[in-house]
TrEMBL record, chain A:
This is ABC transporter permease subunit. Gene3D superfamilies: MetI-like. The keyword Membrane applies. Residues 87-298 form the ABC transmembrane type-1 domain. Belongs to the binding-protein-dependent transport system permease family. It is a multi-pass membrane protein. It is found in: Cell membrane. Signal peptide: none annotated. GO terms for biological process: transmembrane transport. PANTHER family: ABC TRANSPORTER PERMEASE PROTEIN, INNER MEMBRANE ABC TRANSPORTER PERMEASE PROTEIN YCJO. Its main location: membrane.
Length: 307, 307
């Protein structure tokens, strides 16, 4: 009897303690929760709501005094040639840029995974340097190199080749941006891949050498399969960032020539600039859903790795 | 294949003995470390060096261009080394283009954002890692969802919200939305989970409250992830572009990338001597930081990439 009472008071004490802990923990999280609700959750929901209204720049002081227009924004979006063109540009950027970036990053990672540690650290830092530089600054430099009478064409002229006006030619503008993005982003993937390579047990590779496997065979049959989770993860991380590319065309081509470098993000920004917030939100939601789908893939990959 | 292997296995036993004998007699005969290194990695490093030269060339070209006079930079074909090296492009940024203001804006925004993330992300990280409370899974779910939301999906409604909070074109608008980043919360939580509970229990037995335990026991242990978080946050804030472009509406609030991008697409669009000097000014602080704190940058990539 007495013991029972003791137990129940223990339980009571526990719940009081837990309640106290809950208050403390949410107290610790309060700044994050405020920032999250105010600048993430509310915008995300309003973005969805706005895409069903005719909100424009004139409604900015009275955002609740707008008309519900149903799927009208999405309809006009999907019948807008420029929107489809921007989706195509974005898709091309990802589908060409991603494999290129990954291939270069993997080659560098493999080369830097053996040899002298100090020397490798130096090279690693060097290849990573463009990642830390502001895209805007980088874009200015590349525009200077690629302009019609710039360095690249002057060098080509030496060997008697007449280079195109790289950034003003519809055929070369997007490829130029892809090459630049590759140059800038290889560093991140390279470091992720090096970490992945170092996790491959050396015993496996030694065993393969004993069996007479050459370097290429080892790479193809052992390294690549073992590196697959890292490669997939890198692919997802990079494609999420490539799907949003904006800074490069903003400075280098302003979306031109003839919209050939107008990315999805640029389209959203442009509609925003025109004051068509409804259409802009609708387009941003389409892009968001694509990005969320790719990110969801990342979570699945991460979970598989934990198992 | 098998035959050659057999022979290569069969022969060495006698040769090895021979080699060892000569080694003992004339030790200098052994190939030097450098020789052996060159034999094993020479080709790799030659290719890497060539690649590295291409990789850093844009930075070189940027610096060279920034030292040329306005007239020299228009020259076709371009000169390689500046003929009359001049710092006038840099001084023009200070005297004509208000570099000081942009720099201070960028610095204030980056420093405050970094400090905020250090404090607030650690607090949430602590709650998630070390306190058992109601709603913990919900909170962690929020963090993970936030990780997936790209800024392009929220900037339009965010603009409406910030306008109605009368914060447009203030430091607040540039700092608040980034004050706690989900990645930082994740980083801190992961690290804090590794801190032994016994340490905290000891504090609790001594009668320390959660705040004291957090500040006096947990935080001092967390220097490595905090350094990484600081570097990551500073970098992304310094280079942030889309939101500052939208939220900063006048010269006095522009950050460096915004100012540079607007000059490079505005009146100064063809004046590359001044644009390249601007690019140097934007890139230098972050490159210096990278050179001195390399370790933390690299850690940031591996930690945020692999998780």
């Amino acid at each position: 009897m007495r013991r029972d009472r003791n137990q129940s008071s223990d339980v009571k004490a526990m719940t009081v303690l837990r309640r106290r802990r809950t208050v403390i923990a949410w107290g610790f999280s309060l700044p994050f929760v405020i920032v999250f609700v105010l600048f993430m959750l509310v915008p995300l929901l309003s973005s969805l709501a706005m895409s069903f209204t005719d909100i424009g720049s004139s409604d900015i002081q009275t955002p609740f005094n707008v008309n519900f227009v149903g799927f009208h924004n999405f309809m006009s979006l999907f019948s807008d040639k420029q929107f489809w063109s921007s989706m195509r540009v974005t898709a091309l950027f990802v589908l060409v840029g991603l494999p290129l970036t990954m291939a270069v990053a993997l080659a560098l990672a493999v080369a830097l995974n053996k040899g002298l540690r100090r020397v490798n650290a130096f090279f690693r830092a060097l290849f990573y340097a463009p990642v830390v530089a502001s895209t805007i600054a980088i874009a200015v430099v590349w525009r200077y190199i690629l302009q019609n009478d710039g360095l690249l064409n002057s060098l080509l002229a030496i060997i008697n080749v007449q280079g195109p006006d790289w950034l003003h030619d519809t055929r070369t503008a997007l490829p130029s941006l892809i090459v630049m993005a590759t140059w800038r982003n290889v560093g991140t993937l390279m470091i992720i891949f090096i970490a992945g390579l170092q996790a491959i047990p050396t015993e496996v590779l030694e065993a393969a050498s004993m069996d007479g496997a050459g370097e290429w065979t080892k790479f193809r049959c052992i390294v690549l399969p073992l590196l697959k989770p890292t490669l997939l993860l890198g692919a997802v991380l990079q494609s999420v960032s490539y799907l949003q590319f904006f800074d490069e065309p903003f400075v280098m081509t302003e979306g031109g020539p003839l919209g050939s470098t107008l990315s999805a993000s640029y389209y959203i920004y442009e509609k925003f600039g025109f004051g068509q917030y409804g259409i802009s939100s609708a387009a941003s939601y389409v892009l968001f859903i694509i990005i969320a789908a790719v990110s969801a893939l990342q979570f699945r990959l991460m979970r598989n790795k934990d198992d | 294949m098998t035959e050659s292997m057999k022979s290569s296995v069969a022969v060495p036993s006698s040769r090895q003995r021979q080699l060892r004998m000569t080694d003992e007699i004339v030790p200098d005969n052994r190939p030097s470390l450098w020789r052996r290194f060159r034999k094993a990695h020479g080709i790799t490093y030659t290719v890497l060096t060539l690649f590295a030269c291409i990789w850093i060339f844009p930075f070189f070209w940027m610096i060279l261009g920034s030292l040329k006079t306005q007239r020299e930079i228009m020259r076709i074909p371009p000169t390689f080394l500046p003929q009359n090296p001049t710092f006038s492009n840099f001084t023009r940024w200070f005297t004509e283009l208000d570099f000081g203001t942009f720099f201070i804006n960028s610095a204030i925004v980056a420093v405050v954002t970094t400090l905020g993330n250090l404090v607030f992300c650690s607090m949430v990280g602590y709650a998630l890692a070390k306190i058992d409370f109601a709603g913990k899974n919900l909170l962690f779910g929020l963090v993970m969802i936030t990780l997936m939301v790209p800024s392009v999906a929220t900037f339009v409604p965010l603009f409406v919200i910030i306008t109605n909070m009368h914060m447009l074109n203030t430091y607040m608008s540039l700092i608040l939305p980034f004050l706690t980043q989900p990645l930082g919360v994740f980083l801190m939580r992961q690290f804090m989970m590794g801190i032994p509970d016994a340490l905290l229990e000891a504090g609790r037995i001594d009668g320390a409250g959660e705040l004291r335990i957090f500040f006096q026991i947990v935080l001092p242990q967390c220097k490595p992830p905090m350094a990484t978080l600081a570097v990551l946050t500073f970098l992304s804030s310094w280079n942030n572009f889309l939101w500052p472009l939208v939220a900063a509406q006048s010269n006095k609030m522009y950050t460096l990338p915004v100012a540079l991008s607007l000059y490079s697409t505005g009146q100064q669009a063809t004046d590359y001597s001044i644009l390249l000097a601007g690019a140097v000014l934007v890139v230098t602080p972050i490159l210096l930081l990278f050179i001195f704190l390399q370790k933390y940058f690299i850690q940031g990539v591996t930690m945020s990439g692999i998780k």
